[in-house]
Amino acid sequence: MKSQHRFQIVVVLIVLVLSLLFAIPSTPLWDKTFGVLTIDEQTAVPETTLAFKDGEDGKSGVIEFTVNRNATIFGTNTNVRPEDVLESVADACRRKFVENGVQAVAVNPDYTKGVAAIRVPNATGAALKQAFDALHLYARLPLDIARIFPRSRITLGLDLKGGIDLVYQIDINSIEKDDNPADACQRSVEIIRNRVDMYGIAEPNIKAQEGNRIRIQLPGVRDPERVKSLIQSTAMLKFHLVIDQALSAAQLEPVDPANELVLFEPGSRTQQGKWYKLKRAPEVTGRDLKYARVAFDEMGVPIVHLEFNPEGAAKFAQVTGAHVNEQLAIVLDNKVHSAPVIQSRITGGMAQITGRFTLEEAQNLAIVLRAGALPASLILLESRVVGPTLGAESIQAGLRAGILGSIMVILYMAMFYKFCGAIADVAVIFNTLIVFATLVFFGGTLTLPGIAGLILSVGMAVDANVIIFERIREEQRSGKTVRATIDSGFDRALACIIDSNVTTLITVAVIYVFGSGPIRGFATTLGIGLVANIFTAIVCVKLWLELIYGRSQAKTISV
């Protein structure tokens, strides 16, 4: 074997292995084999610690999740809290049940014991175990195997998966005077991304655009209004001392605008709303917050439990100690949520927000408080919802087109070019694998136009092989040896293949630069496919022919 062949074999094997490593985690079998939960989540909340019990009421089943506080993730990443991972795993299980049409609700967690739970009505613990296994949340093979693979996965566009497409603009008038609009826009992107991640939306696409705009594409969203509320909330949390309160704002006059402000506390069905005159300067703000989570009071009503950082805890202890028997208003986005009376000095940096929340509202509030306050208000410019049914139909149509086209190509090549046609079929499959893996590696999004670009690149890959095989046929008719036929055929086809692919690449580059959205998706997959085409046609096909016919006694090539 020539040294040139050895080098080419090594290159081809490296490309093949890398392509498989990046492509396999995006296949449907991955979740069934290694679980829907991430490796870190499965390690932090092991399946062996799960408990399936009959509910105390005798009419429901309960799944208890217990966090392993000694998991590696908590030692290597101090920003990850056991409570966060525990809540994420329990909520992922609950959402999976709901997606499958099974009613499941969260149970008040006990974070001191590291336990969270969900309850499913009209079920037993044993039945829940079977239903839970069908969700494929945990791996069926050792996680050490999964660690070999990269954690990146292909991102499906809204036209394939369904979801919501939002465009917001930063309200410049709400930005602080010394703040820069572009910086505020970029910080808003990061905060929104944190909120979306905490909500549990997979594969979000959040980008800042020109004109202080933010584009948010969230695939798989089932409750668009809740997501909008989650994104748009500025989450400006402040604690103000109460000066006075009344049923109408007029009763609180006169007001000193420099030192006082008047805010409203919305009422309920059984209680009228109130107006509060507050000290303008807040005693503690959301910047002093360390953590926020959902809890339940003695009556089972959802509340939001707050934990301050050391600086915030000191401020909170000071203000509560100095103003015993006074009211301290909890203000969120310029609305009073509650104004409890300070009974005594509060140490330990703990507080809670009550406000007649539903569980969903409390979860949203905890998420936005943990993610931080937006530096400016957001103005919704565009909202577009793509139904999951349309996405599913698009996927099926794309798959049918791809499979049918691939079968026709394989049959055509095998029929007209015999053994060489079979080699070309393998090269085309390799080409598609490279394109798919490259999209995963660069974090690209696969859209319906992207699938069209992929199918077109497959056609051009076949075209390159047709040119090569036609040249080989011509050389073989002239009576040359097998080796000379292969060399001459590829030499004559090389210039034509490179010219056609390079000129197409130039066109693709122009489309990508001046196009937008779906057009860019088409250009991306087509461009990657063209580069992969040059590699598979010129390097792989020639190498395989030389290796096969170099050791064969055949005097002609099956083409």
Describe this structure in words.
Helix content is 50%, strand content 19%. The chain has 559 residues and is of the alpha+beta class. It folds into 4 domains: 1-23 and 388-550, Multidrug efflux transporter AcrB transmembrane domain (Multidrug efflux transporter AcrB transmembrane fold); 36-138, ACT domain (Alpha-Beta Plaits, 2-Layer Sandwich); 156-233 and 380-385, Alpha-Beta Plaits, CATH 3.30.70.3400; 239-354, Gyrase A, domain 2 (2-Layer Sandwich). Strands 9, 10, 11, 12, 15 and 16 form a 6-stranded antiparallel sheet that branches. The protein has a 4-stranded antiparallel sheet with strand order 1-2-4-3, covered by helices on one side. The longest helix is centred in the C-terminal third of the chain and has 54 residues, at 388-441.
